[in-house]
Amino acid sequence: MISLKGREKFLILLTLTALIAAAVVPEFLAAYNSDPSGTSSTTYPATSVPVANNQVPPMYATVPSGKFFYASSEDFAPPGQVDVYLVGWLGCHVALSDGWPLYVIMSGFGQLNYTFGTSNPYRPFPNTTGLIFTGYQPYEPDEPVHFYYIYLYNKWMNETADCQPIPEGDLIPVGANETSHFLPTPLYQLVMHYQLDAVFNGTHEPLAILKTHIVTVLIITGPNGTYMAYGPLYNILPLKEANGQYVMEHLYDQKMFSNIWDGVNVIEQTIREAAGTSVNITFSS
């Protein structure tokens, strides 16, 4: 559980964020912006599809782990496009392991820069080897699939990804604030519902409260609605203490890394489901 101090700060921060977002987010999102720190996408999303009162009704009060679920019927991507968002942190086994299949898929639509990373050795699935994205640029502005990412915390969860100290008990409000500047406002509100209100199947506390921080989530949104996934999408055990360079050199060997390609197939299928018949998508993988 987060401390009372943390809860109070989060409620105050959430109120201020909502007021500020209502005034400035539409103009902010209408333009493309760069992030020189490399902790988030090189370009921010274009203006999102309007939603009445910026309120999106959630689909579920409980969510599964390790697979995509249908989070909303709303489309938060521009017309004729599917958007993929990775919200994570630098020491998270989920964000790092998601990097491998995302690299395979999104390299077909843009140039990805990355470094190798390993997960926090003191948390579940320690020393999992994966990718940390440092830049993404679509090949063409009208690519049918666009990718955005942000890292909220450093590997040890005592600073933000750009090295700003985080006071004890403030991981949730700080992470929520970072997320609010990254996602279109209605999508941010939907994500916060699944972080702060919904629970994992088999638990009795909201996701972020249970973990004491904003939890890594992979989001895919398009004409058919919005999908989210928490937890590893494939067997990541073979990635423990793996050599990142070796994995990258053999990444397209589907027999050697069949586990990663299980993740590729899951994500590609969900992109197709989000696109429906409205967006023509061809995967290079």
From TrEMBL:
InterPro entries: DUF929. This is DUF929 domain-containing protein.
